[in-house]
Amino acid sequence: MPPHTPSTPVVATSLSEWYRGSARDLPWRRSSFHNEFGAWGTLVSEFMLQQTPVNRVIPHLEAWLERWPTPPALASATPAEVVHQWANLGYPRRALWLHRAAIEITERHGGVVPRDVDALLALSGIGDYTARAVAVFAYGDRHPVVDTNTRRVLARAVQGLAQPAPPSRRDLALMDSLLPASDAESAVVNAAAMELGATVCTSRAPRCERCPLLDDCAWVAAGRPDTGDTRRRQASFEGSDRQARGAVLRTLREAAPGAVLLSGVLIDWPDPQQRDRAIDSLIADGLAEADGEMLSLPG
């Protein structure tokens, strides 16, 4: 048990006041962005931000929404166009999921991103975080929104832990307990918790002296103990199958709308067996198509 637990009003008020004065100016936080792209812009940004740094997302997001400003516009694109436009954002299956979601939104919801969390969860590639993020940040509804950064803030400030436990439904309940009753204020607190975890309460080098929760943080009050870290470690990217997949996709994007020889040297990768595994997995995921000895982006 932490030596003390900060009260809900204190945490919410401190987060809200800090956020209004310290939040980064990001495109998806601007009223002009929401006026132009609405909930679709929020949905696209959330897909791109999954496991990808903000500075990499911004130019891709702007280019994507300029090309496909609505769900029906993206729904009319081919999978090959979608994967090519995704470029080097990483985890390219997200591009195909977003494309499928756009088709589903067009067919089921008249081209308008739904507001209901259950309806959002029924779309391809959308989980608890993304569904609630759209409902909260695009439509202004009151829901707890919990990502990796939020879990870290909750673990330290409320639970007195150095690192969060693996994700669970308890995270949503804990965040919900901290939210103000007001829909508008709860949206600010949700955004503030994520922003604090991303910029101040970071995983390896938290800047506690800059934290608005410093005087009320259970972890700081306990002396910032090392309480262990049970999170699953991500495998190294260098030399991994994921890197090999990226190399194959890069070759295919550069060849688009053409194709490359499966057995040729155009796919530059030092380990032929790993390259072939990467090709097989891309085909299985629908990110590439094979026709005889030729490999291409999906049609």
Q: What does it look like?
A:
This protein is mostly helical and about 300 residues long. It folds into two domains: about 230 residues, Hypothetical protein, domain 2 (Endonuclease III, domain 1), CATH 1.10.340; about 55 residues. A three-stranded antiparallel beta sheet has the order 1-3-2. The longest helix is centred in the N-terminal third of the chain and has 19 residues. It is globular. The mean pLDDT is about 90.
Short description:
This protein is an all-alpha fold and 299 residues long. It folds into 2 domains: 1-231, Hypothetical protein, domain 2 (Endonuclease III, domain 1, Orthogonal Bundle), CATH 1.10.340.30; 241-296. It has helices at 8-22, 31-49, 54-67, 71-75, 79-86, 93-108, 117-121, 128-138, 148-157, 169-178, 183-199, 218-221, 241-255, 272-284, and strands at residues 260-261, 289-291, 294-296.
